[in-house]
Amino acid sequence: MWQQEFLWFFTIFHHEFRKNNAIAFEVLMVLAVAHLFGFYNPKQLADFLEVPHQQFYTELKDWSVYHVKKMLLRFMVKQAAEKLKPVMSKSAATRSRAGTTLSIDNSVIDRCGKLLRCTWSWYSGRYHQVIRGQDLLGIVFTIHHIAFPLHLLFCPKQGRYHTTKADLLIFMLTQLKTAFRREGLDITQLPLTMDSAYVSQELRERLHQLGFIDIIIAGKGNYVFTIDAQKWNASTWKKVLMLEEPTWGIDVPSCRIWASSPTFGSLLLFFFRKSTTRSYYLLNFSQRALRGAEIWHIWKQHHVIECFWKIMKSLFQLRSMHLQGDGLYTALLIKVFAYLLALRLQIQGVFSKLTITEMMRKLRREEDLRDFLVTHFHAPFSIG
After folding, report:
1. Could you tell me which of 305, 101, 293, 73 has the C-alpha nearest to residue 213?
2. Which residues contact 320 (CB under 8 A, 6 or more apart)?
3. Cα separation of 6 and 8, whole Å?
4. pLDDT of 325
5. Collapsed DSSP state (helix, strand, coil) of residue 132
6. Most buried residue, 4, 14, 139, 350, by most Cβ within 10 Å?
7. CB of 120 closer than 8 Å to CB of 157
8. If 0-12 CB within 10 Å is exposed, 13-18 middle and 19+ buried, where does residue 265 land?
């Protein structure tokens, strides 16, 4: 079981990358495996193995940021392509039932260090205020309520030019479109979901130019819409519109209605209420009109990316690794490897009915990490 999964990682590495530094890559894999045993950075693992932690850091510094970013993209795309290929050959209805979407969201990792790259002041949805940290923009592929990360990029604030998150998003989607074309897949057939931070008419047009057809975006309360000759902002419309009771394909009170906006022109809005007091609405930026059930089914998958961030932050301790300079991407690569390995292990019979948390607990109870490393790795460092 383990050898099969390790072989997947090493085969891709040796096939895709000319810089075949097998020892350095093996260190990356050892650090990723250690996450499943509760060791979340090189210092913790080195202390457990009773070896100098400098040996780990020396190998990690050998990677250039170019190779690390390339590895991030290639491994994530390869993993997602395995899941996507069988589904893309099926009908649109089958893809819809599988819950296939591309979900876009950002997450702020709170930091206070001054030597860490991309550490600036960002608004955090968790703390509901501006905090100092790193803003990580992510695109994940969802299928059967599982998130497969496709692209992760730290948002910089410095540089010669003002780069917006929308520009970064277009850059990331363009890269993904090219990467999946190499795998014989067209990801523009998948619907996009994102939150209100990205709402703009320019972004809508650029996404259409890239070829994306179905795009659902959460709306802001201050946008003004005209409905039936009445002009109010979205916050007011959420209060006055009468929502219909749950119906086929929509398990919440909702209202699908055409509106006119000075910014977006004519478009479909979908209002819904998730609790007894809070109402929300979605913007249909798609190139075609969608039924209410279609809009709701697409948007229901968006919470999966929130689950992905929680797993990365809570289970794999995303903020626990403090590598200076370009090392922030090396740290991210190790965390992603740990997540991908966990997903691949969940397919195996012995772990198939366990969550990632339960799987990690089972491994810590039944396996000894020292013996495990001796069995499965070539020991590029002494663990005596």
Report:
1. 101
2. 40, 41
3. 5
4. 66
5. strand
6. 139
7. yes
8. exposed
Furthest-apart CA atoms within the chain: distance in Å: 78
For tokens 């093996």, the residue is 26
Backbone angles phi, psi at 49, to 5 degrees: -80, -10
Joined tokens for residue 239: 């209060």
Give the residue extent of every domain in the chain.
Answer: 2-214+286-376, 215-285
CA atoms of 135 and 122, how far apart (whole Å): 7
The least confident of 98-107, 193-202, 266-275 is 193-202
| Mean local confidence (pLDDT), 114-137 | 71
Place of tokens 């650090």: 31
d(CA 237, CA 280): 10
Q: What is the CA radius of gyration of the chain?
A: 22
d(CA 356, CA 339): 9
pLDDT at 255: 95
Residue ranges in 51-195 assigned as alpha helix (H) = 54-60, 65-88, 92-97, 165-182
Q: What is the pLDDT of residues 25-47, one digit of tens each?
A: 888 999 999 999 999 988 898 88
Neighbouring residues of 23: CB distance < 8 A, sequence distance ≥ 6: 59, 380
192 contacts 104 by C-beta, under 8 angstroms:
yes
Name the nearest CA neighbour of 118 among 127, 109, 126. Answer: 109
Q: Is 373 within 8 Å of 30 (Cβ atoms)?
A: yes
Is pTM beyond 0.85? Reply is: yes
